[in-house]
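Sequence in, structure out. Go.
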Amino acid sequence: MKSEYDFSQAEQGKFYHPDAKFHYPIYLEPDVEQFVTKIAENKNIDVQILVNEWLRNNIKFIQSIE
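Output:
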């Protein structure tokens, strides 16, 4: 690593996008991951799709009892 860097020609905000959306990774415990992966494989769908379906169903259920 250099002791000093020259940023005099740098362009500020070059990679800034105000409308950018970020997807945060969710880390599952090994037993949960194994369970969800097995069900997703049996249904022949992606784990992400399965988990989103489950979460949406839980959201609907919670909203229905509030």
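Check: The CA atoms of residues 24 and 31 lie 21 Å apart. Residues 30-65 form one domain.
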